[in-house]
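Continuing the batch. This is chain 6 of the set; chains 1 through 5 are on the previous pages. Same settings as before, nothing changed between runs. Recording input and output for traceability.
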Amino acid sequence: MTPLYAGLFDDAALFPPGDLPLAEAVPAHRGHRTAWYAETVGPFLCGPGRLADLVRTAGTGPLPVGLVLPGGSAGPAAALKEAAGLDVVSIEIATDDVAATVAQLAAELPEGIAAAVELPRDGRTEDSLDALAGTPHRAKYRTGGLTAGAFPPVGELAAFLVGCAERAVPYKCTAGLHHAVRHTDPVTGFEHHGFLNVLLAAAAGDRDGAVAALEERSPAVVAAAVAALTDDRVAAARRSFTSFGTCSIAEPLADLADLGLLHPPTLEDR
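Output for chain 6:
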């Protein structure tokens, strides 16, 4: 398995538009963790609304959990208390005040649990990234949603990616990255970023390169650029772009297979 996709797909099956019931999502996640593509799968994401039910029904077997806390939630300490008994590996917290959230994490987050702070899209991204710089935490950026305005323009997303790189702040993305390559949704008309476009932008190293990578719509061009990444560029990209939440693990894998970039192992591969 190429390190380019290791742990790239955080399992957001409980979140829109997937909205799977826990009784389906938990067994499906455990199935992902025993499949040939297991190395691509990140934690099972759960928000506070379903956390109590997850604690009651999780059962046995590997289930690394990422807690997703919306703005205004009780905070990490309260969520971790409610999640007692689960294998919590990360916390994601949305905030309007990144500096205050960083201080809260310092006070409440136990050692060994990673954190990602979702930045507000308020035009003050530089200030937010300055507050995260030098901390052990990742930035998180919303790349889509249920309205056209939830999808950041190319220039905005490129500025975020480059700002993170300049400060050595790793990041994850959430929502909207349903497919590998930039496209216009035929039903909604929304402009979707592609997760491979984001990977190429992370590998670009400068704003112009990031913008060009994010704007590319040709699957053949994107696939060729990904296949041509050197080991050094792959490592650089993944140091920056750590993962993204997807309500379907199957969809990104299918896209990678269609592009000839990832496939199940054959007997010769084993």
